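Justification of resources, computational component.

The compute hours requested in this renewal are based largely on the per-chain cost of generating structure records like the one below. Each record pairs the submitted sequence with a full structure-token output. That output is archived, and it is also reused by downstream analysis tasks.
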Amino acid sequence: MIDIRFEPKSKTPIQQFYDGETIFITGGTGFLGKMLIEKLVRTCTDLDRLYVLVRPKKDNNAVERVETMFEDSVFDAMKTQVPTWREKIVAVSGDCTQPGFELSEMDRLTLQENTSVVFHLAATVRFDEKLKRAVIINVGGTKELLKMCTDMKNLKSIVHVSTAFSNCTRKYIDEKFYEAPVNGDTILNIVEHLKEEDLEIIADKFVGDFPNTYTYTKCIAEHVVREYGGNLPIGIFRPAIVISSYKEPMEGWCYHVYGPSGICVGIAAGLIRVIQLDVHKTAQIIPVDLTVNALIAIAWDIANKKEKGDTEAPIYNYHSSWTNRITWKLYTDLAFKFGKQIPSVKSIWCYTLITTTNAFFYNFLTIILHILPGIFMDFALLFIGHKPRITKAYKKIHKHLSLIVYFSLRDWTFSNPNTQRLWDTLDTRDRELFYFSMKDFDWEDYMSKYIRGLRLYILQEDFNTVPTAQKRMTKLIYLHYTIKYTVLVLLAWLLYRSLFFAYIFLTTTFRS
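The structure output for this chain reads:
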């Protein structure tokens, strides 16, 4: 846990920028949003208020959802270091799928009168999201936010969080706007007048070369920012694949199993043994704490640029390959290296992984290494009186793997002059407090913390179980190699017998 305390006399330029400011955050209950709230409150202690848009649910209103959120241990450092933290954070009940976010009149007026910095994080990030919902949230939500922002009297900065893959149909991605596949208002009008089931029939025609509705709608959302944010102090932040924290506020913190983290957990559990992956491609992964630091600094930079009279919305690409890129091979090698040191006590098999770029070979190995063993294990579970669950788990795993294969087989080249310029211009103290440079990043140190974090926060296994897990893993390794070599010997014997009988048959035939 990091303990960073700054006296008023030593405040950095970024801290001074946030002094007395009122911040509005959408998507604050998500992975990135939680970390943003935590870092802002913990380091910018003199900010005035932080309003968080929260969608009420059937069993929990907005305030109750926020209270539940703060039970997460990721906020422990913030609570300890900032005694007044609770009075700074205000839950605002709203829904980004509705006009005007369905805000109450009082909340709307409060935001109009006081908000000076806006972070728009709200989005559906599901790769298999229905087109209608993806458009309403990612495109419509962005448009509604910008309409709200035009009425904010003290606005200094807006950061729209997009994704590095919003233009993934291109190989080279610069920090600039690209043509959207369709106008934002056009697609919003279409989804408004078509039923979801009718829209799904033709969804592929809309999405086109994009791999999913997420990247498709995020691309259109950038066009909406350009169209409706022209007179606003706004910029776009394009982070790559955001995964576990590096150091703040806890090493390796994470709470979801999407993307690369999901694969690591699947391997640790002994379930994933083959994936479709080009190990020579770049792993565009970035730690969530560094991502949040960049986000906070970008809001400050946007305000400065607006004061200087810049009219074009700046775009900031944030990716892993500044200088020392990490390939998927290095990622998997390091994951195995550190994973074997602290195996999971829940693992059903030892660590093993085959990677291939060939779809046919992948599908063949999936049957051999996933489906057939899964069926066998489910029969074993039934035999001992337990409910079968392995085959069902594999259905989810294979769906997840199919959704990310587009990104595991491709490479992109990102330029990032705006992001690097921002880093180069930061005060020395801001560089320490809001560190986000990926130049010469220590991937080995990060991966050691990353794997430990997955074990602790996702698998929820205490490290005092490591000795037991290591003994279990040793037994699984012996079992793995016993089965492996038994099968190889059996196959060799079958091959020998086949060749022997073929020889006998041919010899007998020719003699006759």
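The mean pLDDT is 92. The two ends are 84 Å apart (CA to CA).
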